[in-house]
Amino acid sequence: MGNNYTQKSRQRQDRYLVGVKDYTQYHRDGYLIAKGLLAEDDVRMLFNLAEQSRLGIKTDISQADPSSKDPLKDEFVSATRVHMLSRVNSDAEQGMLNPRILDVIEALVGPDVYALQSMMFLNPPGRGGQGWHQDSYYVKTLPDTLIGAWIALEDVDEENGCLWVVPGSNHEPIYPAAHAGGGHVHAVDAFSDLNSVENVSHLDDDVNTLSKVVAHYPPPIPVTMKAGDVLFFHSHLFHRSYPNRTTDRYRRSYVCHYCNARSWIPWDHDGYEGNSGNYRQILARGRTHLPYAEPAFGTEVFLSDEDDDSSDSVRMMGMDDGMMMPVVQKKDEAID
């Protein structure tokens, strides 16, 4: 008989416990806001990192490649966002592996969790914004278990460019790009009417054709947040942001992505060799049968002890009347 596996997270005094209603809301609406999830010290650490990033960047938007069709090319050149700081900075790694964030991820898509990606958003006045998109369009996990955690490092509202979401759109498939290789999550030709989309993430709804699908839903809602709040959102959820329209406020946030650590990941932000990028992703909770990386800066993570098979297993036994009855198998109990 095979070994039973029940993930048991290490107990901590500040462990965050997800409510059943929270779990239900996330899977129904595609998002969940955990208010005040991060402690002030944790927010301050990431805010200071955002400031270090901002002050250390010299940008010239004229350097953007005029031939590029990437709708976010100006944002990357002007460095309103910085990808994968978690691979080069210990504070960024700590932020991505914050145990209270992982508590929620573990409950929503776990119990085994990979930490995949980090992005620091700065969004100064007049900059930032990203049109309608779905995150699994960019980051592929199979099975598709991707989830985002959007950490507010300061108060966020409609004026300085909060996120907008379409509740319930997480039940949509991922709309693929017209060209091969981009945004294809589902089996090719599995749908009779899954139309391709163009210019995903473009701010202009007349150009970004995913907006035509968004239009079938009730009006999107803004997600206003306080510093320390964390928005968890499904990878199929339609979401977007607008440029910061204030003259004196930034919109600093730290956004990370995770998935179930049993998923195969033919993706990595910095590239990978072979058939998958699993070996580059940090195992943040539980265990996995797949390759994984360890935290580069030694941030503590709470993994399952593979030698701990102390939990009892349950098997189904057929009864004389044709019904099936669950039977608890003690760890040291002999099997006839």
What distinguishing features does this structure have?
336 residues, alpha+beta, Jelly Rolls, 6 helices, 14 strands, globular, Phytanoyl-CoA dioxygenase family protein, dioxygenase activity, oxidoreductase, Phytyl_CoA_dOase-like
Describe the protein in words.
The chain contains six helices and 14 strands. The protein has helices spanning 20-29, 40-55, 73-77, 90-96, 99-109, 211-214; strands spanning 31-34, 81-83, 113-121, 130-133, 147-152, 163-165, 221-223, 230-234, 239-241, 253-260, 282-286, 302-303, 313-318, 324-329. The strands form three sheets. Strands 1, 2, 3, 5, 8, 10, 11 and 12 form an eight-stranded mixed β-sheet that branches. It has a four-stranded antiparallel β-sheet with strand order 4-9-6-7, with no helix packed on it. The protein has a single domain (20-311), classed as q2cbj1_9rhob like domain (Jelly Rolls, Sandwich). Residues 59-64 have low confidence and may be disordered. By secondary structure, it is an alpha+beta fold.
Q: Uncertain runs with pLDDT below 50, 5 residues or more?
A: 59-64
User: What do we call the CATH topology?
Assistant: Jelly Rolls
Task: Look at the helices and sheets and give the structural class.
Answer: alpha+beta
Query: What is the count of β-strands?
Result: 14
Count of the separate structural domains? 1
* CATH superfamily grouping: q2cbj1_9rhob like domain
Proportion of residues in β-strands = 15-25%
Q: Helix-strand pattern, N to C?
A: HEHHEHHEEEEHEEEEEEEE
Largest sheet: 8 strands, mixed
- What gyration radius follows from the Cα positions, in whole Å? 22 Å
Shape: globular
Q: What is the chains' assembly state? A: single chain
Distance between the termini: 11 Å
CATH structural class? Mainly Beta
CATH architecture: Sandwich
Kindly state the mean pLDDT as a whole number? 88
Helix share of residues? 10-25%
Q: Please give the count of helices.
A: 6
Protein name: Phytanoyl-CoA dioxygenase family protein
GO molecular function: dioxygenase activity
Organism: Cohnella yongneupensis
Keywords: Dioxygenase, Oxidoreductase
